[in-house]
Every structure is written in structure tokens, then in C-alpha cells.
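Need the bound structure for magnesium ion, inputs here:
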Amino acid sequence: MPSEFEIIRRYFSRPAPSALLGVGDDAALVQSAAGRELAVSTDLLLEGRHFAAGAAPRALGHKALAVNLSDMAAMGATPRWATLALALPSADAAWLAPFAEGFYALAARFGVDLVGGDTTRGPLTLCVTLLGELPAGTALRRDGARPGDDVWVSGALGGAAYALEHAQDAAAAKRLHEPEPRVALGERLRGLAGAAIDVSDGFAQDLGHILERSGVGAVVRYADLPKFRIADAALEQRCVLAGGDDYELLFTAPPGARAHIEALAAPLGLALSRVGSIRAGAPRLQLLDAQGRAMRTTPGFDHFA
Ligand code: ADP
Ligand code: MG
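Answer from helper R.:
Posting the output first, comments after.
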């Protein structure tokens, strides 16, 4: 059984060239350029709650980082440095090697260096903290939506939730287990979008957060929402409106930005759909069906519900 230090040395000590000091001291040292702000986010993944016992370790390494990258995307930040806190039931090389591989592969794609963490024995728990950078004052905050703004969504909604019920659907499973964080889109939306959030708990609930923080309402046309292909209409509605774990970006922007936003889709290889608009008034989502009638919205995922 390797020691904690052996695990760190063997699996989590790859070079971190973007840090002044990486793994191996009491703290890592990083330097942010003048005129830039740091964005900081943490996400905790717990076995039995966020992923099933026996989940593939490579996908877990990917997802533990991906959910944090998605938070950076939703702020418009460029991800830079990560720390990884791990509780492991045992030092199992057959688990650790592919986990580290999944983590470092995604980190390399997004230019993120792992600069520290903590490792202890315990029920399988993965906690990543990510630092990102952005020009001062350009963050895409939840409180930036204004009446008259369009509401936009990237990619397609509902695939990850669909995978929970149809595990054999490979495209849906990929959405759930190896989400693709929309970092490049977030960066390109700086200066264009008013507010942004990533869809982690379901479209209706996550849009609700923007409405609450911005003190505005919204009207959204269900027919215009980009949807993962789901044959059953009732299931589709549940997955698209209330399904978590999609990690698409939901953002608002003034109508004057439409052409600029539409022009981002092709270079990013990512669908960008205009699905509704922001209205003055109470922070309420009005959802319309194809006939323009009001639809009932289903609540999203709440860990304490
Ligand atoms: P300390 O006792 O100061 O908390 P540790 O012995 O926990 O230090 O960690 C030693 C070094 O290894 C530190 O630089 C820490 O950030 C790093 N580290 C520990 N666990 C991990 C991990 N899972 N991934 C990356 N770095 C880690
Ligand atoms: Mg420690």
C-alpha cells in the first residue's frame, strides 16, 4: 500500500509551468497579471450522490475538472490553476492511474496546471478548486440581465438527464459522464453577454438564478429550446427543463449583439439558440408552448429537496 506521499508523487506531480511554485510545498504560488481579476470556484463530487459507486475512474477525472471549467466558462474566465482534494477508500493503482489520466488530459486541453491539493483515506470524494483569470470588470455575472435582453442557450439540453434513464444511449452517456465545458464560448461572450450561468441544475432553475439576481422576469418559448433527441414528449420536457448536468451556457445579451453572437457558432462548432427574452418585473419564468399558451415549469435539481 503506497503512502499518501507516494500517491501524490506518482500520480499528481506533473510539472505546472504556469505556476511560480506547484505541488510539494505548504502552498502553491501563482501570479496574475496586472489589470486582471481572479475567478475562484470549487465543486465537490461525492460517490453515491454525484456519481454511482463503480463509476469509470477516467471519466471521473474528466468530470471533476469539467464541472469547475464550466463555472469558469459561465464567468467568462480563462481557467489557469487547479487544486485537487481527494478522499480515497484505498490506494488502488488501477483506479488512480486512469483517474489522473482523465484529469490531466482535460487540464492539458484547457491549459490548466494542477498546483496542489490534499489526499486522505475516506469515502470516495473529489473536490477541485479552480482559479481563472479575466480582464478586470469583464466577468459574466448572474446579476447582469436587463429588460429587453435576449436569452440564449448553447448546445442542447436534456442529454445528461436522459442518460440517467437510458444508460445504453452512448451519446447521452457521454453528455452525463464526460461533459464538454464551454470555456471558449464564455471567453468570447465577454463584452457581449450581460449575464451568464452554466446549466448544472436544469434550465428552469438556472435561469431562475439569473432572474433572481438581476431582479427581472423572462419569457421563453419551449419550441425554441435546443433539445437532445428524446422521443417521449413528457420525458423530453422533464429532461430539457429540469435535467441537471448538461453544462451548457445560458446567457443574456442585448438584441444589438445578435449578429456577433450568431457569428460565434461556426468557429466554435457549437449551436447557439435564442430562446426568449428578459422582461421587467418579478423574477418569474414564463414558459410558452408552440401555441403561445403558458406551460407549467418543473423545478430543477436541489440537493436538499
Ligand atoms: P500539507 O501537510 O502542507 O497539507 P500535504 O502533505 O497534504 O501538505 O501535501 C503535500 C503537497 O502535495 C502539497 O503541495 C499539496 O498541495 C500537494 N497535494 C496533496 N494532495 C494532492 C493531490 N491530490 N493533487 C495534487 N497535489 C496534491
Ligand atoms: Mg494536506
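Comments: The longest strand covers residues 36-46. The mean pLDDT is 95.
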